[in-house]
């Protein structure tokens, strides 16, 4: 079997039959999915507000570090008087250490709260799923394979857990850092 010069050999995977310009189709969320997910988080408004405040404070603190380093270099190590200012060097160094410790503590608190909220949401979701499964008829269970039901329960709830604990917080943190960086540059 010959291939055109410069072509990569096919790995034989599921996409090997697709052409180079063919992308797999993606399905849109069914209508009403987002409001249902938001409803799961409504009982946790206070915790989510605290997490949001921590994220905003952490973003602001992450901008202070480069500003302190700038002052450390420009004013403490290489001031206009040409002699290093040791007192200012110590002061800024201690501020940087304190800022690092404060950022770590805020990150720990945020992770703890996010994990707690995520676990509570997943508990509520699993309870609702269990109640729903209990309300289904025997015909559903005889017509559906047990592994399919188990897989659906594990994979869907596990996917939501990933979104709750990792993805959502990361996006919010990145947005806050981006906005605060732009503000600091202005």
Q: What is the domain tally?
A: 1
Q: Whole-Å distance between the termini?
A: 60 Å
**Mean pLDDT, rounded to whole units?**
81
Q: C-alpha Rg, in Å?
A: 26 Å
The CATH superfamily label reads ABC transporter type 1, transmembrane domain
The biggest sheet, with number of strands, parallel, antiparallel or mixed sense and barrel status, is:
none
| Structural class based on helices, strands and sheet pairing | mainly alpha
CATH T-level topology: ABC transporter transmembrane region fold
What is the C-level CATH assignment? Mainly Alpha
Shape: rod-shaped
Low-confidence stretches: none
* Total number of helices: 5
SSE pattern, N- to C-terminal = HHHHH
Which range best describes the helical content: under 10%, 10-25%, 25-40%, 40-55%, 55-70% or over 70%? over 70%
| CATH architecture descriptor name | Up-down Bundle
Amount of beta strand: under 5%
Counted beta strands: 0
Provide structural commentary.
It is a single chain. This protein is 74% helix and 0% strand. 6% of the residues are buried. The chain contains five helices and no strands. The longest helix is centred in the middle third of the chain and has 50 residues, at 86-135. It has helices at 33-41, 45-77, 86-135, 138-143, 146-185. The model has no long low-confidence stretch (mean pLDDT 81). It has a single domain (44-185), classed as ABC transporter transmembrane region fold (Up-down Bundle), CATH 1.20.1560.
Features:
186 residues, mainly alpha, ABC transporter transmembrane region fold, 5 helices
């Amino acid at each position: 079997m010959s291939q055109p010069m410069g072509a990569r050999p096919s790995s034989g995977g599921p996409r090997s039959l697709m052409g180079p310009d063919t992308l797999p189709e993606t399905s849109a969320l069914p209508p009403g999915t987002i409001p249902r997910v938001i409803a799961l988080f409504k009982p946790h408004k206070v915790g989510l507000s605290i997490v949001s405040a921590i994220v905003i404070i952490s973003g602001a603190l992450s901008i202070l570090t480069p500003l302190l380093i700038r002052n450390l270099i420009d004013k403490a190590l290489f001031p206009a008087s040409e002699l290093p200012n040791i007192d200012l060097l110590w002061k800024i160094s201690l501020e940087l250490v304190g800022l690092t410790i404060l950022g770590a503590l805020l990150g720990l608190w945020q992770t703890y709260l996010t994990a707690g909220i995520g676990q509570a949401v997943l508990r509520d979701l699993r309870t609702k799923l269990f109640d729903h499964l209990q309300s289904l008829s025997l015909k559903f269970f005889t017509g559906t394979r047990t592994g399919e039901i188990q897989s659906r329960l594990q994979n869907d709830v596990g996917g939501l857990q990933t979104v709750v604990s990792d993805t959502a917080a990361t996006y919010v943190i990145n947005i806050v850092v981006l906005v605060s960086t732009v503000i600091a540059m202005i």
